Structure to design on (477 residues):
């Protein structure tokens, strides 16, 4: 797999923007809402649909060749973001651009080319693989769907005269003829008088090339590698390596690249360990030679020792094939190991984004600080430290809080946080945070502090308990 796949004219190589300063992927105002109470029955009853704001106004860019880590607790919208920017889910609003082109506006050959240039590795290495297919069939499926690899232009035509082969120098030059291009052999010194004109067509659209000789004969031949079909009209046609053979070679190479053996391609997913199944998923994602890969928690379901192997493999593949990653995870130690930049997500929004070191050494958002506090430490003194857990529960994306969505759990929240939704402010070193505390002269500092989150949580619990007692009294009355 050291060389790129051979594609047709609408394919990857001709659509790559080499040396461009534009981000490979840019996301602007992306929203993905799911709606409840939106069935036909609900509409007939006049019920208003309820929006679940899984992703709500996300903005970021992924530069060519980098790894952007996307982190946050479960349910914050990470996976939905990754699937939506690939077009696997339809966006409610916003724009995703890939190499400068809006993904939602792609269709036909352009959309097919985009599918070849962007791939995904799913979180669960077992449920994402078809148990009825061998791993060879799983890895080969994207190649089959896109009709790849394309056989090289290796078509040879020779004309015989009374049993004598025409010298190679006298044969028509058909090296550049591929697919259904016609090769016309005219009469003259090179051909017998009865072979005055032939049109040889080589059709490579199927699994194996089909040769058709027209004008003087009507011969169809299914041709495999190194086979030669001789018609009784005096025309000899040879066709190079067929697509199925190239596909088998490609699958074997991919499996070996991800640390498996080509001999394992006839085995089924249940015969592999979790780490091996994830390697199969990675091989499938790389089958079409993409530029951009979404890695949706690719190691979260694996043992720690296997996690390190997969992370090292992903790093090696990125260096070898100049890949760009969006790495989705909730484990910050894993993200720090593999990422160039990190975006922190909370309740459908990105609250902080920047290079790895500034994020980990000098976080500017209270939620990022809380996430970093939860990372286990190997050092004894650090391990025994007191960790202050966040108070309260994560608000529902059906009814997110006003203002800053984190203010209900934030120990630094003030009245300004409840009233206004902060933009992402510049925290220096290409580092941005959606927190008023990042601005020294912001009115936040003059606004009234809110009650500590734990007191707010206790008050909420007391209110709920009081409501429950009131409801019980009403029912008994």
């Amino acid at each position: 797999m050291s060389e790129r796949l051979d594609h047709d004219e609408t394919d990857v190589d001709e659509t790559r923007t080499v040396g461009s300063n534009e981000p490979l992927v840019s996301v602007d105002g992306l929203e993905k809402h799911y709606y409840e109470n939106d069935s036909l029955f609900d509409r007939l009853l006049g019920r208003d649909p309820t929006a679940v704001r899984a992703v709500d106004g996300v903005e970021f860019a992924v530069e060519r060749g980098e790894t952007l880590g996307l982190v946050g607790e479960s349910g914050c919208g990470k996976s939905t973001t990754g699937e939506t920017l690939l077009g696997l889910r339809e966006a409610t609003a916003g724009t995703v651009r890939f190499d400068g082109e809006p993904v939602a506006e792609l269709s036909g050959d352009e959309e097919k080319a985009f599918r070849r240039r962007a791939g995904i590795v799913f979180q669960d290495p077992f449920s994402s693989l078809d148990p009825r297919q061998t791993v060879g069939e799983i890895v080969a499926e994207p190649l089959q769907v896109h009709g790849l690899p394309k056989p090289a232009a290796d078509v040879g035509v020779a004309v015989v005269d009374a049993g004598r082969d025409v010298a190679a120098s006298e044969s028509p030059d058909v090296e550049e003829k591929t697919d259904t291009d016609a090769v016309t052999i005219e009469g003259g010194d090179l051909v017998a008088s009865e072979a005055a004109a032939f049109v040889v067509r080589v059709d490579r659209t199927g699994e194996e090339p089909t040769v058709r000789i027209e004008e003087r004969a009507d011969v169809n031949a299914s041709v495999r590698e190194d086979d030669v079909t001789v018609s009784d009209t005096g025309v000899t046609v040879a066709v190079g390596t067929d697509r199925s053979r190239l596909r088998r070679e490609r699958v074997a190479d991919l499996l070996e690249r991800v640390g498996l053996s080509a001999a394992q391609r006839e085995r089924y997913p249940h015969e592999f360990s979790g780490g091996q199944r994830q390697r199969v998923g990675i091989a499938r994602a790389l089958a079409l030679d993409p530029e951009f890969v979404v890695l949706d928690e690719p190691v979260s379901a694996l043992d720690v020792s296997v996690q390190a192997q997969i992370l090292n493999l992903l790093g090696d593949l990125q260096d070898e094939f100049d890949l760009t990653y969006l790495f989705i995870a909730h484990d910050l130690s894993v993200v720090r190991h593999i990422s160039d930049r990190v975006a922190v997500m909370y309740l459908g929004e990105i609250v902080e984004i920047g290079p790895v070191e500034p994020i980990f050494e000098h976080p500017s958002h209270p939620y990022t600080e809380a996430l970093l506090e939860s990372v286990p430490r190997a050092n004894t003194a650090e391990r025994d430290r007191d960790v202050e857990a966040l108070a309260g529960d994560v608000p529902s994306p059906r009814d997110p809080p006003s203002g800053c969505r984190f203010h209900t759990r934030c120990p630094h929240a003030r009245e300004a946080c409840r009233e206004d939704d902060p933009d992402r402010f510049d925290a220096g070193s290409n580092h941005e945070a959606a927190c008023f505390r990042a601005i020294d002269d912001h009115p936040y500092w003059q606004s009234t502090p809110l009650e500590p989150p734990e007191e707010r949580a206790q008050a909420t619990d007391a209110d709920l308990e009081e409501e429950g007692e009131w409801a019980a009294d009403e029912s008994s009355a």
Notes: Confidence is low (pLDDT under 50) at residues 8-19, 153-199, 215-236. The domain at 25-148+246-356 is CATH 3.40.50.300 (Rossmann fold).
